[in-house]
Write a structure and sequence with these properties.
By secondary structure, this protein is α/β, with parallel strands linked by helices. It is built from 9 helices and 9 strands. The chain folds into 2 domains: 156 residues, 3-Layer(aba) Sandwich (Alpha/beta knot); 59 residues, Trp Operon Repressor, Chain A. The longest helix is centred in the C-terminal third of the chain and has 19 residues. The chain is elongated, with a radius of gyration of 22 Å. The two termini are 31 Å apart. Bound molecules: 6-{[3-(dimethylamino)benzyl]amino}pyridine-3-carboxamide.
Length: 222
């Protein structure tokens, strides 16, 4: 998969992309991630990318031209262009599975009070990572890159994402490692029993109980 990220702050991505699973996925060519500075596409002599909104109101608005030209510079016939905004479709694990089937994503990160409305006609999807406002779309873009990359074939063990929370609309079961007794808190006996059928049943019970308690909305969907 190819992912192009259009942003005014490409340096914000450096740390995330250089570490751990995302670094390994790039090194093994499971994903190719390219950062583009929207400012490089400004035609203004001072590289301006924003201006006051018509009609008044607080804050600056991103002009359509630099974003349009940046998108068109990256776009191919197979590209899916995604805008990260608080007004987008609320992002869920099911969207990560869908995006992981694409061959080319273009992620557009906005800033300030938002984009000129006409940008919306050049994009395929608008996604929000949750009901809160951030200073820019960079963190939401990182959330998409991370959640999609880990689902690409060969990036992590296939069976680990079949077990993910949300895969089956249930939260994860509790897991334990050594020691068997930590400050008097013991690992549940069933996990030490070697009885695989009992372990499977116990885990499902735990998942259902925890989901009922914390996320009854997920059980509803199920
Ligand atoms: C566009 C996404 C971009 C419009 C982006 C803000 C939160 C999210 C931005 C705005 C973002 C999210 C109208 C404030 C940049 N904040 N929840 N900030 N407005 O996914």
């Amino acid at each position: 998969m190819k992912i192009d990220i259009l942003t005014l702050f490409p340096d914000m991505f450096e740390g995330i992309l250089k570490e751990s699973i995302l670094a390994r996925a790039q090194a093994s060519s499971k994903v190719e991630i390219q950062l583009h500075n929207i400012r490089d596409f400004s035609l203004d002599p001072h590289k301006k990318v924003d201006d006051y909104g018509f009609g008044g109101g607080a804050g600056m608005v991103l002009m359509p031209q630099p974003i349009y030209d940046a998108i068109e510079a990256c776009r191919t016939e197979h590209s899916k262009v995604i805008l990260l905004t608080p007004q987008g479709v609320p992002y869920q694990q099911k969207h990560a599975y869908e995006l992981a089937k694409e061959s080319h994503l273009i992620l557009v990160c906005g800033h300030y009070e938002g984009f000129d409305e006409r940008i919306r006609s050049f994009v395929d999807e608008e996604i929000s990572i949750g009901d809160y406002v951030l200073t820019g779309g960079e963190i939401p873009a990182m959330v998409l890159v991370d959640s999609v990359t880990r689902l690409l074939s060969g990036v992590i063990e296939e069976e680990s994402h079949v077990q993910d929370s949300f895969h089956d609309h249930l939260l994860d079961y509790p897991v334990y490692t050594k020691p068997v007794d930590f400050h008097g808190m013991k690992v549940p006996e069933v996990l030490l029993s070697g009885h695989h059928e009992n372990i499977r049943k116990w885990r499902l019970e735990q998942q259902i109980a925890k989901t009922k308690e914390r996320r009854p909305d997920l059980l509803e969907e199920r």
